[in-house]
Design brief:
This protein is an alpha+beta fold. The chain folds into 3 domains: 3-78, RNA-binding S4 domain (Structural Genomics Hypothetical 15.5 Kd Protein In mrcA-pckA Intergenic Region, Chain A); 90-166, Pseudouridine synthase; 170-326, Pseudouridine synthase, CATH 3.30.2350. It has 8 helices and 18 strands. Strands 7, 8, 9, 10, 11, 12, 13, 14, 15, 16, 17 and 18 form a 12-stranded mixed β-sheet that branches. Strands 1-6-3-4 form a 4-stranded antiparallel β-sheet. It has a two-stranded antiparallel ribbon with strand order 2-5. It is globular.
Amino acid sequence: MSSQRERFDPPVERCRFRTDARITRDALLGTLRARSGWTAMRVESVLAHAALFLADHPYDASTLPEWIAAGVRVDAHAFVREPEPIGIGRERILAETDAWLAADKPAFMTTQRSRASTRLDLETALRSLTGCSSLSAVHRLDRETSGVVLLAKTREAAAALGRAFEEGRIAKRYLAVVSPPPVKTEWQVRGFIGRVADPERFRFGLRSEPAPGFRESHSRFAVIATGGDRASVVCQPLSGRTHQLRVHLAAGGAPIAGDALYGGCPGDRTLLHAAELRVTAGGEEIVLSAPIPPDLGSLAGALEDVEAHARIRWTDSGNRGGPTILGERRAPDAGERIPDAQLQ
């Protein structure tokens, strides 16, 4: 495990059972320790993160009732070791209005609370920072992905922005560092993405034909720089499936560096960054961009700023079917820049 994952994303253990009879709070915690084998300190950590669920409702030390009824489902999640918190300051706020806020999410911070913690996510941190208790994420990024996240301040804004995402009135640009470099400099991938069997991880696969649980997906890619055994790739997802870019890049033979789940080379994290988001809602276009983080900078430094991503024009080749990987242009020589790649 990389040093960053050890610090910010330690493994989580789970203990589940059902109460046999009406019991006290102390008896419940004693039963949890006995069934899980966790120390009293780890059980205290479960409560500190509000990661003790009774009938699917989270409780912490201040909200756990004195008595628990018989037959209640208990589901507890405990970090193997305490994660290092990731601080959020106002420098992470990219733009803000009375209706919404955009933030630059750090890698290893979840967008919203997880089963293991309701304390360490971006949404909770920004609520505390801004004093806006109604702040809610309109979309999500994977834990290790950094970059632009849009959050609504009101129910009305959440509904309007949510409709924009559902109706496809959005455009996204991501930057990925991949290894090995792709054979083609420009290509696209189509296919059907769905969850595949894996005894240990939440993982997705790509199929050429429709199947139950698999949904159509489409992404476009362009290489902007190469160096050694790596390349920087601008990615445009044209659909919004879970792990879509990770699955599509792996299907093209160029998995994201650090993405062990999909065959990427070892690294501190999955090197994927949400660089730009455009949303049309309420008659206006919202254009947001996040600076490239240092761990993507060795290759991405060839770009002067994130606006360079917007200069890449995407056009539909008319191809249908999948999974299909298209592309014609040669791969660049090591160190060569392709500043204004254009799909044709």
